[in-house]
Automatic annotation (TrEMBL):
Xref: Pfam families: CarbopepD_reg_2
Organism ancestry: Bacteria, Pseudomonadati, Bacteroidota, Cytophagia, Cytophagales
Classification via InterPro entries: CarboxyPept-like_regulatory
Signal peptide: 1-21
Organism: Rufibacter quisquiliarum
Keywords: Hydrolase, Signal
The protein's name in its UniProt record: 5-hydroxyisourate hydrolase-like protein (Transthyretin family)
């Protein structure tokens, strides 16, 4: 092999090696050392993130620079910021102490129901993810007229999915002092499945005997960036997939039109919660989810 061919081969191997370099990691419970499934992982201040799988493993397809910081959150655990120190990261999350001060248990004798933010047949607008682990939330304030039906009974939402049985998480979040989404009300995840097509999905909350907190509650939808939720459009004539830009992670969730600023929408983006009542030129203004919440006595 001559010198020129040898140098060319070395260059090709170096490029190939770089292409396969990745940042990987594992999220575990600090107390039990067991894997924490479906953690939400963001690169701080960047539109880049992923979801851990059911074994707690996560992957970024390229190497993250060592000056970056990851923000890891998961229901039931304290949020953590971790510096990128190498191509493999082991992250320990501390179990969160779920406050029960606003959770009231009563005898299950429910009869009356009150529906807030009722769904209708309009599915003109939906909001989805192309590979970042967004959460979108809608705020439901508490009102004096709700005293006769104080319990959280059911969440309903409209999903649109190109695949069967797309998995997602719903969360109930407390309201912070500055009015943003805060800690989880429940210590357990609300895992749900969206059927293929445009469907109404309902989640029963009655088993938890949760009372609507005095400050109200945020109902939040979390995308799971996992392989089985991945969908890529294909050319109907050739059957070949289009460019990677056509990849989505199912499902999409029904939302209000971008110009509508009256529905208390929030999005968890780049590791922080932001109100979607911003300029219509901003992409996050599209994240105004429409959730239906049922209260009962």
């Amino acid at each position: 092999m001559n010198k020129k061919a040898f140098l060319l081969l070395c260059l090709l191997l170096a490029v190939a090696g770089t292409g396969f370099a990745q940042t990987k990691g594992l999220v575990v419970d600090k107390a039990t050392k067991k894997p924490v499934p479906y953690a939400n992982i963001w690169v701080e201040n960047e539109n880049l993130g992923t979801t851990g799988n059911e074994k707690g493993e996560f992957l970024f397809p390229s190497v993250l620079p060592k000056d970056k910081t990851l923000i890891i959150s998961c229901l039931g655990y304290e949020r953590r910021r971790v510096s990128v120190v190498g191509n493999y990261l082991r992250v320990e999350l501390t179990p969160a102490a779920i406050s029960l001060q606003e959770v009231t248990v009563r005898k299950n004798t429910r009869r009356q129901k009150r529906i807030l933010n009722r769904l209708d047949a309009n599915t003109e607008f939906t909001f989805g993810s192309n590979g970042v682990p967004w959460m979108v939330a809608q705020y439901f304030p508490n009102q004096p007229t709700y005293t006769a039906t104080p319990f959280l009974d059911e969440i309903a939402l409209v999903t649109s999915s190109n695949i069967k049985n797309a998995s997602f998480k719903m969360r109930l979040l407390q309201v912070t002092e500055d009015g943003k989404p805060g800690q989880d009300l429940l210590p357990v995840p609300l895992l749900a499945v969206a059927p293929k097509g445009i469907k109404t999905v309902k989640l029963d909350l009655s088993q938890y005997n949760l009372q609507l907190p005095p400050k109200g509650v945020f109902v939040a939808f979390e995308w799971l960036i996992i392989p089985r939720n991945r969908y890529q459009n294909t050319d109907p004539e050739t059957g070949l997939p289009f460019a990677s830009s056509s990849v989505s992670y199912e499902p999409s969730v029904r939302s209000y039109k971008p110009s509508d600023k009256a529905h208390n929408g929030w999005i968890y983006d780049k590791g922080q919660w932001l109100s979607t009542n911003v300029s219509e030129a901003e992409a996050i203004s599209l994240a105004k989810p429409h959730f239906q919440l049922t209260l009962s006595d």
